[in-house]
Amino acid sequence: MQSGYEIDQVFVRKRSGRYELLIISLDPSGAQRRETFTYDVPNKLTAVQQAGRHMAGRGDTDRADDLRLRVETRGNLHDDVSLKRVFIETFKRVRDDLDDDIL
Question: Using an 8 Å Cβ cutoff, are 21 and 51 in contact?
Answer without folding.
Answer: yes
